[in-house]
Amino acid sequence: MTIHLKEATAYTYDVPFLKEIQPYAHQVVQSQMIKEAVTSNKPTIIWNQAMTGAGKTLANYSLLTHMPKIRALGMYPVNELIKDQYQSVKDSVELGKWDEVAIWTAEEMRGERKPGESKVDQIRRMTSSFYRSIFTNPDHLMLISQERFFSYKKGDVPELLYRLADYHLQIFDEFHLYDIAQVNFLAQWMALITSLFPSRGYAFVLSSATPRVEFFQLAKRMGIQIRNVQEEVDRWLEEERPRVYEERVYLEPLSLDLCSTNLHRWNTSERILEQWEEQVEYLRKWPTAKGIIILDSIHEAQMLAHTLRQKGYDVGEVHGLSDRTNSRIALAKPITVATATIEVGVDFKGDIHKDFLIFESRNAGSFMQRLGRVGRGSRRLPEPPIKVWAHVPSHVKECIDMDEWSEMTRQDLKRVVMDSYQRYQDFYPFLEKVGGMNLVHGYYLAKRHQLETANNPILESLKTIVEKMYGLGFEEQNRQYQTWKKLRMIEPILSFRGQNSLENQVLHPDQEERLDTFYPDIWFWDETEPKMPIKKYDFRHVLSRKRVRFEPKEVFLAKAKGFISAEEWSDWKKKFENDRVLGYATVMGIRDKPAKLYWKLPPNAHLYTEKVVRMKRLQLLSDDPGLNEQLSDLFSNPASTSWIVTILKISTGEANDRLKLPPMFRLHTAQTVQKADWCIAFNVDAFKLWSVWSQESVVY
């Protein structure tokens, strides 16, 4: 069944805004809300649900022009979006003569660092009063709020948090890309900053068309005022009666076909090829049409691109293992195969416009975001007509088909899609069992900087907000925190990415850290990609899909040094030295069929199931004899390392079905000495699995 999505239009109004821009109503209303929040000394969460393409960036940053003293901190989940937002603000928002805008990504900051300048000194410089806006990722919030950076001067590191606190406008975008632990961290950031600075007015802007219910549950418990932009637009129109300037189409009409696909099998590329005759028919009618295909698996993206080239199509690739320096060229190809790397931060206009879209979607937010990649009112001509094929789980298609929609608006579709995906596990028990640990950690950091700790209002405020947000007494949560800390199990909860991959990069080089943590990535030299052979990616993809040869780190570094220019080598060398990975390898080609991987459990594994534990003597094995021999060498001394895990005495398939785990959840196959198939999760995923299993056990 084909669903026809109506065009999305909105009025612009002849009211003062930016330069000669006539704004949408939501842009004006949000700007007013931000102004009220930062001048009232009362923190406010401002939620703007405007659809993709409706001008949320201008709504977020327009006040930088009208209020010279306001400073903005923009948090974005991926670096591509950081650069996109930075450029948009530079082009559209008029700042003062001496005002600066900063990008805080590892690459940009490395290039901006002055000779002899430490990371702490650089951040201090880039939070001076000249910097009106900072565009960064939540990793920097974690590193700063938890005092992870190193400095010989004790006061320098906590000072960074106080400097960020001067940015009273804080913008959070693309919430659908965060998992439950990351959403929890961002809520705790707001709780921490408002507790430490109770007399300041903050505007926390949620710029997201796809809300996260769990975030708003936490926010309400914080006691911070929540205002919805769309709910106040009608009031503004009625009271102000602004003159309409024009009606503007910001999303074009399109035709949408839903395709039922078992996403747990990770074979959407095969389903696309099975149905390719539909694309052939479309291209036969509209031979100049250009398309984009978005998949979650890099391997599937590579294989699909290869097959389409064999069919004679001119195909570009944009994903984590492609040459990103030529991504613009790849995006301009008649067909581009990509992964989530283009889900945000890429505006398909001009030479990279697209007329048809094929995508898979494992959650509601991803569905709406990927759908918004096309038809953003940017094409010169209304033809070819925009066509979309969406590969979704069968229950999602059935749920939408039941209503027998033939035509609908984007808002109708968003509501139906959000309802349809609710079958999947939301990991809410994770908040109840683990959620408060970051704030308890923040309490102890704050306590170190208070002269008086007895009856201190700031410390008492932190205790209170921990209790309100998570429904448990502070002492009870503190006991759990101290237990996990003593067992060296707290790190994956505190780290934003859940893998502890950042700590070793910021601690002093002489400070020896014993971070027994499972690092899932492999650095590898890819002989199939001579233009950029140096890559890092998740072990499951590399080992199951590629033919590899493991090698000592020194051999890998020697090859890398021969490829990288002398000017860049010092930065790369530092990255290699600090990065913790599973191993180093050379990729010699692609496997004809994927190798199966599983974790061999120690004989006493049955004593440690259904709880989060530290476990030794784990070994990765494969059904491929050649790969197995190499893995045996890699894990020649498995007893020397312990990893944080949760093990369940059921297979991955049964766990997925019983717990309704989302397809992107990192659950691995495990095998006992008796050859029984169990499942295992590592790091923060271990805590997530344990939390939902504990809840499930109560039910059953």
Please provide a written account of the structure.
The protein is α/β, with parallel strands linked by helices and 700 residues long. Among the domains are: 252-392, P-loop containing nucleotide triphosphate hydrolases (Rossmann fold, 3-Layer(aba) Sandwich); 436-506, no CATH class; 596-700, no CATH class. Helix 1 packs across helix 11 (229-240). The protein is globular. It starts with a strand and ends with a helix. Mean pLDDT is 88; it is low at 500-515.
Sum up the structure in keywords:
Rossmann fold, 27 strands, eight-stranded mixed beta sheet, seven-stranded parallel beta sheet, globular, 700 residues, alpha/beta
- Number of DSSP strand runs: 27
Low-confidence stretches: 500-515
Task: Tell me the β content.
Answer: 15-25%
Residue-averaged pLDDT: 88
**The top level CATH class name of the domain at 252-392:** Alpha Beta
Radius of gyration: 26 Å
- Give me the CATH fold name of the domain at 252-392: Rossmann fold
Task: Bin the helical content.
Answer: 40-55%
Structural class: alpha/beta
CATH architecture of the domain at 252-392: 3-Layer(aba) Sandwich
Straight-line N-to-C gap: 39 Å
The largest pleated sheet is described as: 8 strands, mixed
How many helices does DSSP assign? Answer: 30
Shape estimate:
globular
Strand numbers in spatial order across the main sheet: 13-14-12-15-16-11-1-17
